[in-house]
Amino acid sequence: MEITNVMEYEKIAKEKLPKLVYDYYASGAEDQWTLQENRNAFSRILPRILKDVSEIDVSTRVLGFNISMPIMVAPTAMQKMAHPDGELATARATSAAGTIMTLSTCATCSVDEVASTGPGIRFFQLYVYKDRNVVRQLAKRAEEAGFKAIALTVDTPRFGRREADIKNRFALPRDLTLKNFEGLDLGEIDKTNDSWLASYAASQVDQSLSWKDIKWLQSITSLPILLKGVLTAEDARIAVEYGAEGIIVSNHGARQLDYVPPTIMALEEVVKAVQGRIPVFLDGGVRRGTDIFKALALGASGVFVGRPTLFSLAADGEAGVRKMLQMLRDELELTMALSGCSSLREISRNHIKTDWDFPHYLPAKL
Q1: Residue 4 and which of 85, 181, 278, 314 are 20 to 30 A apart at CA?
Q2: What does the pLDDT look like over 9-27, one tens digit per residue?
Q3: pLDDT tens for residues 226-235?
Q4: Residue 354: which pLDDT band, with cuts at 50, 70 and 90?
């Protein structure tokens, strides 16, 4: 089967993966309204004509690093459930594409294993745990492994209600483990069950995490800190005040609180709130180059893709992730050409019309 767009990888992944694994990757919280709206809420494009688009430049800079395109890989947990090479395949593919990979705290390959695949710009997604010594160890390991930034997840004081996982009695397969926790001093914990690391990661997230802890995290690492999970202008302004060096507009793939805004709808107010002081990125719902164009038009400095990475990895390993990233890049270039933009800086708010530009707009069921 000739793959012609990123969404076709999901169909292949659904056929190849055990139902328990596919549902874990694909499902959202409760009614899954936000999961659907993450895709449905993208806006309309208003192309401009008779522009010289004989050469298209999609390169950009993120936190001072040159990357080939504004398309990066989001953190997704337990990638070895999708393919035996897991995060190592994703790391190689992302590096070959000249862009950034974000490794999940709950990865099935460690920061050191990912670093061993060769050069590349990598970020580390971090949860804050009740035992702050564990957080110190995780941040130190990432820094020593050459990771360039920490993406601090801030929308998960508790894990959302994912009913597919409840029905499937989801658990990490016995032959896999969360590699970033191996060898850490985890204190006194119950190690009697086969998936004790997964149980630890799920049960020990610190529900008391607050703004003051951003300063604490800055005191234990020299890496820049991006806040992942911001959806409002109010929180965006506070993030700037507390020294965040970037914001990732994210609703956790619609896996946390259902009926929160789709990320593309929340993006513009966050961008306006930070007033250019720090970069803002979009994570959620991106499946086409046209989606990326719309996010850039609303002020995003780039996008992160999560589920497309998992599904392309499941379908064809490293080659699948490479092709997925290339297809998104090709579609972005085509969208830019047909919209009269030869570089990213030429993409503006004038190129799109959002549904919420109209006073009568109200999403279904909201």
Answers
A1: 85
A2: 999 999 999 999 999 899 9
A3: 999 999 999 9
A4: confident
pLDDT at 159 over 90: no
Q: With beta carbons less than 8 A apart as the criterion, state whether 307 and 284 touch.
A: no
Q: One-letter amino acid identity for 211?
A: W
Is 360 an annotated catalytic residue? Answer: no
pTM for the model stands at 0.92
Q: Which residues pair with 72 in a beta bridge?
A: 304
Which residues sit opposite 247 in a β-bridge?
A: 227, 280
